[in-house]
Each structure stands twice: as structure tokens, then as C-alpha cells.
Amino acid sequence: MKLKSLEISGFKSFADKTMIEFMPGMTGIVGPNGSGKSNIIEAIRWVMGEQSAKDLRGTKMSDVIFGGTNKRGALNRAEVAITFDNSDHYINSDFNEIRVARKLYRTGESVYQINGVESRLRDIHDLFMDTGLGRESFSIISQGRVESIFNAKPEDRRGIIEEVAGVYKYKQNKEKAQKELSQTSDNLSRVADIIHEIE
Ligand code: ATP
Question: Which residues participate in ATP binding (predicted)?
């Protein structure tokens, strides 16, 4: 799996559509302070389902929409799309190329797409789960995060390792199955009570 490209439009300081193509090897992004380097990383986190406005240095999610400058008015929509080369099928999908897109309007309307098909946030999370790109993964380490990882509680640090090792998905499935078992057990007790009353 390789990161192929990133399209950003109306997101934070990127008012105009900007396309970044990632070439083989290492990519460095350089620029003066305030030129938008961190905004690019935040665009990647956002399109992959980031839900915390605070972690995107805002107070509400609509803060990611280009808010205007003294030369240009605010926009009403932020859009980011990320494309992965998946010819090795590292991401659990039959597609050789995966394009994930997210749009947000000032009205609050929000859309996710996987290869052009409207999807739920959960589908996005499932897609990246166990790839090392998921939520709370080590793949993106923002400013200040290194220190917070060092200072994290052992159980939180273990969560990070579990995500990277691919255990997280199974833990989630186990939790879901346990909930269903508990619900079924409640239902069975109720049925037993009814049978008891009838007898
Ligand atoms: P540094 O090197 O100081 O860390 P940087 O290159 O990482 O800087 P960013 O933090 O990515 O820069 O960009 C900050 C700029 O983005 C600021 O000028 C800020 O005004 C602008 N910005 C952030 N959110 C928005 C928004 N919603 N609309 C317009 N501009 C925004």
C-alpha cells in the first residue's frame, strides 16, 4: 500500500483545489511558519475520519472550512480526498486503488465516500483498521504527541501497540459478540419468566 495523492479544497488555508502527488521514496514538506504544513497532515487525518475538532486545532468541526482572509471570502465547503495504491491488497479490499473522500458543508451536512460510493464513518474506520493507519495509530505523530505517548498510562500505550499489531479489530469484534451474548441471555431470562408465568 502506498500513499499516492491528496486533494485538498476549501480545507483550512487551502481555499483552492490543491493536489499533492506522492512520489516513491520519502516526501518532505517545507515552508515558512504558518504556510500550511500542519494543515496538510490534518487534512490526511480528517479525511480518514478524525472526529475531534480540538485535535484539529479548532473548537467546532466547521472550523476546518476555509474561513476567509482579508483578500478572499470564506467558503462553504471543505473537501479532502486521499488515494492509496492498494495493488498489494494491504488494505483489505479487492480494489487496486482506494480513494477516500470527505466533504463538510457549513450547514453541518457531511459526506464520506470510498471509491465514489457514499459510505459511513464506520466503513472508513473499518477500512483502515489494522493497517497501522487507523485511529490513534503511530502513523501520524503530530506536534506534542511524542511527549503525550511517553507520558501515557501503560494501558493507553498498550492500545497503541495493539492497533499497530492488528489486535484491535479482534478486540472490537469480541466486545460486540459479548454484548450480543449478554442481550441474548437477557432475552432468554425473559422467555423463561414468561414460560414460568404461563405454567
Ligand atoms: P508552523 O511551521 O508554524 O508549524 P505550518 O506551516 O504548519 O506552521 P499551519 O499551522 O498548517 O502552518 O497553518 C496555519 C495557517 O493556516 C494560519 O495562517 C491560519 O490562519 C491558517 N488557517 C487555519 N485554519 C484556517 C481556516 N479555517 N481558514 C483559513 N485559514 C486557516
Answer: 32-39
